[in-house]
Design goal:
Distance between the termini: 104 Å
Radius of gyration: 28 Å
Strand order of the largest sheet: 2-1-3-4-5
Number of domains: 1
Oligomer: single chain
Shape: rod-shaped
Structural class: alpha+beta
Number of helices: 1
Order of helices and strands: HEEEEE
Largest sheet: 5 strands, antiparallel
Helix content: 25-40%
């Protein structure tokens, strides 16, 4: 006659497995706020880089003294404010998310240099306080 053997997990094994699973889940849940903050920073930096690229493209397409889209006059510093959707204005508003500062360092005759810096949040003046993040680039334009 054959004897049946039953195999199963003991209560101690099940308790240890649940403890290890709980420890792993608590560790993963602890990383979620860091992942959300990293995602927010990456999104803001991507948007700021797109703003810089747009300002430079507008300045390069300029055939007169003032750029057509943003109204930037070469040689005159200008501050622009952008909403999260990409709309811009020259005044700080309730929906402003990014601040773009365009300055023009001194340059040799025939060349124009522009320093474009985008910071966020927009209400924080980078000359007075440290913003949450910033993107800056230096562009040269042949204005002959």
């Amino acid at each position: 006659m054959k004897r049946r053997t039953w195999s199963a997990f003991s209560l101690i094994e099940v308790t240890l497995a649940l403890g290890i699973a709980a420890f792993c889940l608590i560790s993963v849940f602890g990383l979620i706020p860091i992942a959300v903050q990293t995602n927010r920073n990456a999104t803001s930096q991507t948007a700021a880089t797109a703003i810089v690229a747009s300002v430079i493209a507008d300045m390069r397409a300029t055939t007169s003294a003032t750029s057509p889209q943003y109204g930037i006059t070469f040689g005159t510093p200008k501050t622009l404010y952008f909403e999260g959707a990409g709309q811009f204005t020259t005044l700080l508003g309730a929906n402003s998310r990014y601040r773009a500062s365009v300055t023009f360092p001194t340059s040799p005759t025939g060349l124009s240099y522009a320093d474009i810096r985008v910071t966020w949040p927009a209400p924080v003046d980078p000359t007075v306080a440290t913003p949450s993040g910033s993107v800056e680039t230096f562009a040269a334009f042949d204005r002959n």
